[in-house]
Amino acid sequence: MNNTREPIKRKNGFIIMARLIVLIRTLLPVMVLAIVLGSIGHLCAISVTVLASAGILHIANPDSSLIPFISFISVRALPYILIACAVLRGLFHYGEQYCNHFIAFKLLAVIRHKIFVKLRSLCPAKLDGKDKGNLISIITSDIELLEVFYAHTISPVAIAIIVCTCMTAFIWRIDTAAGIIALSAYISVGLVIPIINARVGSSSGLTFRNALGNLSSFVLDSLRGLDETIQYGCGMRRLNELEQKSQRITDMQKNLSKLESYQRAITNLVIIGFDVFLFFILVRSFINGNAALEHVIMATVALMSSFGPAVALSNLSNNLMQTLASGERVLALLAETPVVNETVTGEALTLKNIDVSRIDFSYGAENIFTDFSLTIPEKKIFGIHGRSGCGKSTLLKLLMRFWDVQSGTISLSEKDIRTIDTRVLRDTESYVTQETGLFRDTIANNIAIGKQGASREKIMEAAKKASIHDFIMSLPKGYDTEVGELGSTLSGGERQRIGLARAFLHDAPLMLLDEPTSNLDSLNEGIILKSLKEKSKDKTLIIVSHRMSTLNIAKTVFKMHKEECI
Question: How many other C-beta atoms lie within 10 A of the C-beta of residue 495?
Answer without folding.
Answer: 21
